[in-house]
Amino acid sequence: MIGFTVCDKGEAEYEGSRFFGDPVVPEKWAMKEPWPEDFFFMCQINLADLKGMDTGGLLPERGYLYFFADAESDVPDLRIYYTDKEPDTIYEECNMGFDEDVDYDLFTDYVIKFGEDGCGYVLGSEGDDVILMEYDPSRSEADVFRGFGRIRVVIPKDALAERDLSKARTEAI
């Protein structure tokens, strides 16, 4: 497992790993969002930030993982997307329209620092599954999902190897 902290409110670099704020995405995603309309941007992980930490070789060495959350779900439903391209567009409109739908601050960005024990981890193993991310909002500087407790995104190892992220599922724990 690779631990992470969510910190440094408002100081995230666009190309870095971060929670909330405005994601940096491929231009075609900004023109036509691949995620459902009622989902908001939760975080992006620049896989280069995990260099040397993914000892199992579960993820590509480059590219980005994106996590989007359903604004209308009682338990967060997360969708994951991946690109191996270098994103080139700061998507400022991504979370627009959610300011009245959710009680969270989705517009302030937070840095994700890997390798530190904190509010979550990535790349845990559980039987035939990989825990892509586990997040405990009560241990985070960000206020999003505080009422839900810990959540995690799990995917079968073979689906991750095939880069079939549609097989990922969200669990409240």
Explain the overall architecture:
- The protein is globular, with a radius of gyration of 15 Å.
- The two termini are 17 Å apart.
- The chain has helices at residues 27-31, 157-161; strands spanning 2-7, 18-19, 24-25, 39-46, 64-70, 78-83, 89-90, 110-114, 120-126, 129-135, 151-156, 169-172.
- The strands form 2 sheets. Strands 6-5-4-2-8-1-9-10-11-12 form a 10-stranded antiparallel sheet.
- Strand 9 and strand 10 (129-135) form a beta hairpin.
- By secondary structure, it is mainly β.
- The chain is built from 2 helices and 12 strands.
- The chain has a single domain (2-172), classed as YwqG-like (Hypothetical protein YwqG fold, Roll), CATH 2.30.320.10.
Write out key terms for the chains shown:
36% strand; mainly beta; 12 strands; two-stranded antiparallel ribbon; 2 helices; Hypothetical protein YwqG fold; 173 residues
